[in-house]
Inverse folding.
């Protein structure tokens, strides 16, 4: 059984954004904080400013940060306005490659 703070995943993990243009971010090797699932939330990536993706249990109050795991930009694609890093999930697709 995994401990409550154990990250899963491997160096083949990545995150991406679609807007304003498609951009992928591969794991940097700076850490091995790929995916952490706990009651109420799912984090992908860590350190830097925070997780690349942070999803709450309702998918209504989610965030993106610049993470050390992927050295990503904010994944929302927003460049102006308040809460540039906040979003709500409308659709979710998971892939195992």
């Amino acid at each position: 059984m995994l401990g409550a703070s154990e990250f899963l995943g491997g160096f083949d993990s990545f995150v991406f954004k679609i807007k304003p243009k498609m951009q992928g971010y591969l794991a940097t090797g700076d850490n091995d904080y790929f995916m952490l699932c706990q009651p109420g939330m799912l984090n992908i990536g860590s350190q830097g400013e925070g997780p690349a993706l942070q999803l709450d249990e309702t998918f209504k109050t989610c965030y993106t940060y610049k993470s050390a795991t992927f050295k990503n930009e904010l994944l929302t694609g927003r460049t102006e306005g308040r809460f540039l890093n906040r979003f709500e999930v409308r659709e979710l697709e998971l892939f195992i490659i």
